[in-house]
Specification:
The complex is a heterodimer.
Chain A lengths: L2 H31 L3 H4 L4 H8 L3 H7 L5 H10 L7 H14 L6 H17 L6 H25 L4 H29 L12 H10 L3 H8 L5 H9 L8 H19 L4 H15 L2 H7 L1 H24 L1
Chain B lengths: L19 H9 L2 H18 L18 E8 L1 H25 L4 H4 L5 H5 L21 E8 L5 E7 L6 H14 L1 H6 L8 H11 L11 E4 L8 H11 L2 E3 L4 E4 L2 E6 L2 E4 L2 E4 L3 H4 L15 H6 L4 E3 L5 H4 L1 H4 L2 H9 L6 E2 L3 E2 L3 H9 L4 E5 L8 E3 L5 H13 L4 E5 L5 E6 L2 E10 L1 E4 L4 E3 L4 E5 L13 E8 L3
Helix pairs in contact in B: 2-6, 3-14
The chains are: A mainly alpha, B alpha+beta.
């Protein structure tokens, strides 16, 4: 297939995935900040949301203060922020239009329908209720796009490149939450953390839609090291780093088998996957959770660059 | 102005046979049903993404072409005449182009004036003496046909460069099948859905002889900002070929390749929807970022087929149009089956004098204009506009032709006040391959939605209709 087409499909999937993630962060933050301070402490959750979205620098260039109004505008509706939900959908749809022929009718319908609906939301909702509906709609739109891709695409390189976009973005998102919130996930004997963190923990799990999954997997009350385990090493959990890399390796293998040769991207992805497979949570804590995540984010970015160089440029 | 021929009611108000079922159905249908279907059609079009860009309008970057839910119906006999005429005309166009870029017999025989060719900006000297694969220049033609009475069809315009609109023909039919299954069951309507297959067969048939095995066909688009981008992507999808932009292609050793995820892949046939000027910055406009450097060299070496060929503008230019009846006779020795609209060529002094005397009655068109822009419709123009055109005609008469204001036929059309007659034209698409000429029955019917308006161009408020050719 055309390199340009593959590149568009890859980024289209990334943008849709990112929009969904932003909606989850906003939803979780809204929930957390609605609680009395005694339950969540005095940290500025809105500032933390911006950091989790990975655009703190751009945000503080545009705004003085991180609060519900400014963060909602910036992360959801701003046209100045290239990573706002609105921008994500706009770019996704522009990409879709450019590779209209590589999409199935259902996928085009999903992304074009989302874009048309987005125009109706204008510059933002009038109430918290409406904003809540908006956030759910964003998540449903992503599910619909992803579902159409899964159910209707031919299993060939178009599909594989599109999947690579999903999992690379997802890995980045999960890692970013861990990066911002790592201090509340350290084991109990660590100095940081405390009983205030309970609602922080549920909030993290909500951001990656894993609250129910946690209980099914561990059948225990929330323990920060188990949450870290779930999001990093547990390959049953679809947003965990381990699961993302399992998928990245699988789809890269499909591509290399089909093209008859492999390259840096395949080798690098396998290295990261092996490291995740061979890690144990207590070792990661010993080594330093923050450092581990930092390395992972860098590795994940490198994989993105390698995929681009090998196939998309 | 003479009253127009209505394709449903004729001139005497009697429903014509082809429209009998539709007329009966219309008499029984509740107005709100039509209204509801109209809205439904609008939603379907918007979701499918059929939009077109109107140049010069920034906010309405993507706009829908209005779709009229009432079909335009042609009988089998009417279609047979049109089809024969189209085949004849396109055959003549191909002979003419091969001759102009070859032996130039038509010029030596003084059938058309030399300067009409050599001083024409769309003439391509690069093509002189150049062989094109299988001697076909116009693989895809869109011939605009209008009707003025029960028996007379005129060719209004030949489009031999990159005619567009076929996606609307196909989508209109799909939408109609969804909206009005009961109407389809009452008629026997010739299908159009095989058009993409016919197009692919045509394109594959014209691959260079040296192309190995299954020829690799691509569709070359200027990109998403082009007004017909939707159509390009739609066709590439239906054909199952790659939709490429200039930057996806490159030329090495006079061979065209496309950049793919597993390296370079050779290209044999390019269905290009880019104008000559932008094809190759090395050969034509050096500032074009849309084209492929070196493409012309590959073409001249015979390593790739361009459909349509380079330089076909010299066949569909409005000044050349007026000579088409002679061109048909010269190459085929036959009388044209489809007539030309009587045309005054303002380059001829006698014609110019007549035109200047009758501006209030005539339609004046720019020789190189398209899309309904830069046109004078005498009977509808105010004094100032007529004065402007008079001045233009006097300073550059070669730039214009004039035609009588035709009473284009009308078809029943849904308008706000109910169902009313509106003027229509027809663009059938003629495919010329190495093996045969293919035409799917019908084409794109365009309709002027404003009462009394004769301008059917989508950029000027025209809409489209599904076109039914009855099968027996």
């Amino acid at each position: 297939m055309l390199s340009r087409t593959a590149d568009n499909l890859f980024w289209l999937a990334r943008y849709v995935e990112r929009a969904e993630y932003l909606a989850r962060i906003l939803e979780a933050t809204q929930r957390l900040t609605a609680m009395p301070l005694a339950y969540i402490g005095t940290t500025n959750e809105w500032a933390s949301a911006v950091a989790t979205a990975g655009c703190a620098n751009a945000f503080f260039e545009a705004y003085e203060e991180a609060n519900e109004e400014t963060v909602t505008e910036f992360l959801a509706f701003s046209t100045a922020n290239p990573s706002s939900i609105r921008s994500c959908f706009e770019v996704a749809r522009a990409n879709a239009r450019a590779v209209r022929t590589a999409l199935t009718g259902e996928m085009w319908d999903a992304i074009n329908g989302t874009w048309l609906e987005l125009q109706r939301y204008g510059n933002g909702p009038n109430s918290r209720e409406e904003f809540g509906r908006f956030l759910r709609w964003v998540q449903e739109s992503s599910l619909r796009y992803d579902g159409s891709a899964y159910r209707t695409m031919l299993r060939n390189d178009s599909y594989w490149f599109s999947r690579l976009g999903v999992f690379l973005e997802r890995a980045d998102n999960t890692a970013r939450i861990l990066d911002v919130k790592y201090h509340v996930l350290l084991p109990a004997h660590e100095p940081v953390g405390g009983p205030l963190d309970y609602f922080q923990w549920t909030s993290i799990l909500r951001s990656v839609s894993a609250l129910t999954a946690y209980h099914w997997v561990y059948r225990e009350s929330l323990k920060p090291w188990l949450i870290a385990d779930l999001l990093i090493l547990n390959n049953q959990m679809p947003r965990s780093l381990a699961s993302c890399y399992e998928n990245l390796v699988r789809y890269l293998d499909h591509i290399s088998h089909s093209y008859g040769r492999q390259g840096e991207a395949q080798r690098h992805a396998r290295t990261v996957q092996t490291r995740l497979e061979n890690s144990r949570m207590d070792e990661i804590f010993q080594h330093g959770l923050h450092e581990f995540i930092g390395e992972f984010v860098a590795d994940n970015n490198r994989l993105g660059a390698e995929i681009t160089q090998q196939y998309l440029a | 102005m003479v009253s127009a021929f209505d394709e449903m009611r004729g001139t005497d108000g009697q429903v014509r046979p082809a429209y009998r079922e539709l007329s009966a159905w219309l008499a029984g249908v509740k107005p709100d049903v039509l209204d509801y279907r109209r809205r439904e059609a609008d939603i379907l079009f918007r979701r499918i993404g059929i939009t077109f860009a109107v140049y010069g309008e920034t906010e309405a970057q993507e706009r829908l072409i209005p779709f009229d839910v009432l079909p335009r119906i042609l009988s089998a006999a009417e279609w047979q005449t049109i089809q024969n005429g189209l085949k004849q005309r396109v055959r003549a166009l191909n002979h003419y182009l091969a001759d102009i870029y070859g032996r130039r017999e038509i010029l030596r025989a003084a059938v058309i004036p030399e300067d009409l060719v050599f001083r024409n900006p769309v003439f391509r000297p690069e093509m002189n003496g150049q062989k094109v694969p299988h001697n076909i220049y116009v693989h895809i033609a869109g011939i605009d046909v209008v009707r003025v009475d029960a028996d007379t069809f005129y060719v209004l315009e030949d489009n031999a460069r990159t005619p567009s609109g076929v996606s609307y023909m196909l989508e209109n039919r799909e939408i109609m099948l969804r909206l009005f299954p009961e109407l389809f069951s009452r008629h026997r309507i010739a299908p159009v859905e095989n058009y993409p297959d016919e197009l692919l067969a045509t394109l594959q048939s014209v691959a260079p002889d040296r192309a190995s095995g299954e020829p690799n066909v691509v569709l070359l688009t200027p990109g998403v900002y082009n007004s017909a981008y939707y159509e390009h992507s739609f066709l590439a999808d239906k054909l199952g070929v790659e939709l490429v932009e200039g930057r996806d292609l490159l030329v090495k050793d006079q061979i065209v390749y496309m950049r793919t995820t597993h390296g370079l892949q050779r290209v044999d046939v390019i269905y290009r929807r880019i104008d000559d000027d932008f094809l190759d910055p090395l050969a034509f406009r050096p500032d074009s970022a849309l084209g492929v450097p070196g493409l012309m060299s590959a073409y001249q070496a015979g390593n790739v087929t361009l459909a349509n060929a380079v330089g076909t503008g010299i066949a569909d230019d409005k000044a050349v149009y007026s000579y088409m009846p002679k061109i048909v006779e010269f190459y085929l020795g036959e009388k044209p089956i489809l007539k030309n609209v009587p045309t005054w060529c303002c380059r001829e002094p006698d014609d110019l004098a007549f035109v200047l005397d009758h501006l209030e009655e005539l339609v004046v068109k720019e020789v190189h204009g398209s899309g309904g822009y830069g046109m004078l419709i005498g009977p509808m123009a105010d004094k100032a506009t007529i004065a402007t055109f008079r001045a233009k005609l006097k300073t550059s008469p070669r730039g214009f032709i004039a035609q009588p204001t035709l009473a284009l036929s009308t078809c029943p059309t849904c308008v706000d006040a109910g169902v009313a007659p509106r003027h229509v034209d027809l663009r059938p698409f003629v495919l010329t391959g190495r093996d045969q000429v293919r035409i799917v029955p019908g084409g794109l019917t365009r309709v002027a939605l404003k009462e009394g308006s004769l301008v059917v161009n989508s950029s000027q408020g025209g809409g489209t209709k599904d076109t039914w050719v009855l099968d027996g």
